[in-house]
Amino acid sequence: MTLRLYDTATRSVRDFVPREAGRVAIYLCGLTVQSEPHIGHLRSGVNYDVLRRWLLRAGNEVTFIRNITDIDDKVLAKSIEYERPFWSIAYANELVLSAAYRSLNVLPPTYEPRATGHIPEMHELIKVLIDKGHAYAAQDGSGDVYFDVRSFPEYGALSGQKPDAMQAPDDGPVRAKRSPNDFALWKGEKDGEPVDASWPSPWGRGRPGWHIECSAMCWRYLGAEFDIHGGGLDLTFPHHENEIAQSRAAGLPFARYWVHHALLNLGEAKMSKSLGNVIDLDHVAALGVRPAELRYYLVEPHYRSRIDYSDETLHEKAVAYRRIEGFVQRAVERVGVVRPGEPSAEFVAALDDDLNTSAAMAAVRELVREGNTALASGDDDGVRGALAGVRAMLDVVGLDPLDPAWSGGEQKGDLRGVVDALVALALDQRAQARTRKDWAAADAVRDQLKHAGINVEDTPAGPRWTVDDAR
Predict the structure, then answer these.
(1) What's the pLDDT at 413?
(2) Res 414: pLDDT
(3) What integer pLDDT is reported at residue 442 of this predicted model?
(4) Which of 32, 131, 289, 363 falls 20 to 30 Å from 94 in CA-CA distance?
């Protein structure tokens, strides 16, 4: 394997060597589901989906775990605000998140564990830390349990911070901590919190701290040591720093590589539910941008490059994807459906170079230009070769227009089949009118379709119709 990845822990691009040849284990920090996702969240899913697809294409067996945080301070705050059970709010938003991932053709994870389903594993890990002298129960009767940061000399290595310069976490009263920087592993039951948001524990009823959940779920599903831990750059500290501390202090080697993606900003700040500056899928749809075009927008920049969102840039990327999609459609009309072939050498080199999707998509666009030249000159062999290569590369990044994920399929309640049949009937009537040279009737059918939002384009292979994006 020639893949190289930027490892945050070493601050260098390293050859990726899996712990076990031919098998790759990945843990991606998922979302806290106190509200519906925005496109900044979806960037994470799309970026790591490309990594996973590239590893799969190389012949690896990939175990991909992406968690759901369904219990924490933010979820409980929403529960109190809306006077609904925390689990009801979390599950409703989890369903929306899953639908959003599906709409963007993100492969489902091998497993998607919820924090609330792993309380016993967290208790076990906390007990190990206490027994090893790295954690302690507060002596104020709160039922809180804290990690002793001073007991782990490597604390701060991932983020490059010094403990003495760190801001103390506000996850418990300072008086209960041995050091202000100690962080909560278990939070005792508190007045004012929902009564159903606690579990029995050796330290009293309570709920888990944020960081312990991921360490416990990594241990449960990927073992003591695994290959890649992923997440947003904003999770480097404190979340991932704390995961490393509590896991390695417990004797677990933990992650071999740390891969972080950059953020998606709106204005001068990161897109954040807590800040209220978010762009969601409804906004994108209202702009007339399809899910495949949004995925292209999220895939095209390098995963470590910040994205500064604007409607204008999103539209530009949508148009760029439509050019690629248009070539695939015209090529299929000319030579029929061609199976994906092999990616170009430039594409392979780009993705092996720290998943450089920007250079990879440039390779796709170059082959599209060659394919369009072949179409214009009547070079059918050239068209077939370009189509096979373009499809192979687009498949890796989840953007092949011929992928059934984008065509919708014949699911229950899906009207695509009905629309296809009705448009085909109208086009047949138009063809009959043109055959008998009744141009007025043919134009009337075309105008009626246009009024319904269907654009018809006459091509050498026959009429092609598309849905009007402006509608």
Answers:
(1) 41
(2) 46
(3) 83
(4) 289
Whole-number Cα distances in Å, 144 to 154, 189, 282, 332, 430:
24, 9, 41, 63, 74
3-class SS of residue 147: strand
DSSP string, 225-257: EEEEEEEEGGGIIIIIHHHHHHHHHTT--EEEE
**CA 331, 337, 342, 347: dihedral to nearest 10 degrees?**
40
**The pLDDT of residue 451:** 78
Parallel/antiparallel/unpaired status of strands 254-261 and 264-266? unpaired
- For residue 198, which amino acid is it? S
Helix (H, G, I), strand (E, B) or coil at 415: coil
pLDDT given for residue 455 in this prediction: 83
Nearest to 257 by CA among 68, 20, 25: 25
Indicate the pTM of the whole model: 0.86
Calculate what percentage of the chain has a pLDDT beyond 90.
78
Position 277 scores a pLDDT of: 73
Q: In degrees rounded to 5, what are phi and psi of residue 244? A: -60, -45
CB 86, CB 75: distance < 8 Å:
yes
My answer on whether omega of the bond before 153 falls inside 30° of 0, hence cis, is no
Nearest to 31 by CA among 218, 272, 278: 272
In this prediction, residues 317-328 reach a mean pLDDT of: 96
